[in-house]
């Protein structure tokens, strides 16, 4: 399999490293390597039909701030359409106001008959239907396990291992930053602003934490899950959203008196598509602490299925992308490609 990596930040570098680490697996399981034949970031690009050394790509990026040897121009869409490769690994940053450039890159690949594996929430949260239709029309795969929950395999689990189940509802914690802040407020009695500063100092929260604490990140993920698992046709804008900015020490203490904790919960069922702070009984799976993500699926045969995992991180997200690459390789093998 020949792949091009679009975007070479933390996630792009992580999957490059993992591709380098897993060559023995690719050869043993599928009788072929996975070769990186191209990579680009916002400033530069590099390509070679013979394959690029993942370690060299990462080293160059860290040393120069650029993955490539040539300055980027406006021709990346044309490169995706015309270059000889099989799968685009799309890891450009999420933009919820405008799903670019990830949407254009993904559509260019799909319409050129190339698979897309993406970690980018923006295009999926805003243009899921168009992307899915393009994949189906061109008989290629669009896979996006890494867009929700990092290393927590909820999408592939639901669509593949639980494909015989009727899934009635989903609820979970989809943002580790909010979970960390709320947990620190509970454990140490910290005010919201102090817990947020602590998260920022530890690198858990961004300098501008709005996407996390206002529930934007969770709402994006919930829209993706609603479409992918429940067959809905919704966007991020259809999700009822309330963040955690208004949570006070008094609210945390009041919940504690009732032997409960406050968590930012996303929920999907026939009546609700919502992200909001809720009280959860202490000891309940959704009372989980730290930066972990968790999802509970209510099914007709298996009952309640709970998945827990790290929701972000270089290798964690790369592991989800790897699972999608392996799924495409398995499908190609089954079809004799």
What does this entry look like structurally?
The chain has 337 residues and is of the alpha/beta class. Helix content is 43%, strand content 20%. It is built from 13 helices and 13 strands. β6, α6 and β7 (142-143) form a beta-alpha-beta unit. α1 (10-21) crosses α13, α5 packs parallel to α6 and α6 (121-137) runs parallel beside α11 (216-230). The protein starts with a strand and ends with a helix.
Structural domains: how many: 2
Radius of gyration: 20 Å
Largest pleated sheet: 7 strands, mixed
Q: What is the 3D shape?
A: globular
Instruction: Report the span from N to C terminus.
Output: 11 Å
Estimate the strand proportion.
Answer: 15-25%
CATH homologous superfamily classification of the largest domain: NAD(P)-binding Rossmann-like Domain
Here the CATH topology of the largest domain equals Rossmann fold
Overall mean pLDDT = 96
Helix percent band: 40-55%
Order of helices and strands: EHHEEHEHEHEHEHEHHHHEHEEEEH
CATH class of the largest domain: Alpha Beta
């Amino acid at each position: 399999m020949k792949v091009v990596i679009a975007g070479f930040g933390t996630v792009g570098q992580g999957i490059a490293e993992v591709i380098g680490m897993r060559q023995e697996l690719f050869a043993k399981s599928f009788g072929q390597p996975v070769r990186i034949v191209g990579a680009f970031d916002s400033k530069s690009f590099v390509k070679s039909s013979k394959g690029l050394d993942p370690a060299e790509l990462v080293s160059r990026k860290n040393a120069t701030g650029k993955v490539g040897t040539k300055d980027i121009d406006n021709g990346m869409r044309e490169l995706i359409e015309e270059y000889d490769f099989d799968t685009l690994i799309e890891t450009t940053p999420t933009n919820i106001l405008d799903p670019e450039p990830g949407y254009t890159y993904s559509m260019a690949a799909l319409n050129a008959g190339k698979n897309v594996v993406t970690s980018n929430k923006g295009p999926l949260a805003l243009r899921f239907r168009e992307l899915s239709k393009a994949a189906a029309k061109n008989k290629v795969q669009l896979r996006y396990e890494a867009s929700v929950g990092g290393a927590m395999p909820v999408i592939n689990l639901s669509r593949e291992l639980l494909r015989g189940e009727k899934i009635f509802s989903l609820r979970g914690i989809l943002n580790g930053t909010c979970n960390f802040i709320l947990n620190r407020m509970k454990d140490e009695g910290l005010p919201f602003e102090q817990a947020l500063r602590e998260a920022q100092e530890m690198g858990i929260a961004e300098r501008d934490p709005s996407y996390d604490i206002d529930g934007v990140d969770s709402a994006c993920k919930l829209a993706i899950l609603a479409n992918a698992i429940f067959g809905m046709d919704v966007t991020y804008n259809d999700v009822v959203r309330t963040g955690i900015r208004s949570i006070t020490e008094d609210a945390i203490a009041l919940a504690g008196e009732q032997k409960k904790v406050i968590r930012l919960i996303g929920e999907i069922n026939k009546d609700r598509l919502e992200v909001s702070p809720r009280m959860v009984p202490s000891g309940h799976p959704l009372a989980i602490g730290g930066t972990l993500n968790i999802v509970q699926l209510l099914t007709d045969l298996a009952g309640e299925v709970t998945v827990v995992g790290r929701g972000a991180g270089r290798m964690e997200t790369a592991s989800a992308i790897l699972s999608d690459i392996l799924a495409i390789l398995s499908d190609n093998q089954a079809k004799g490609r």
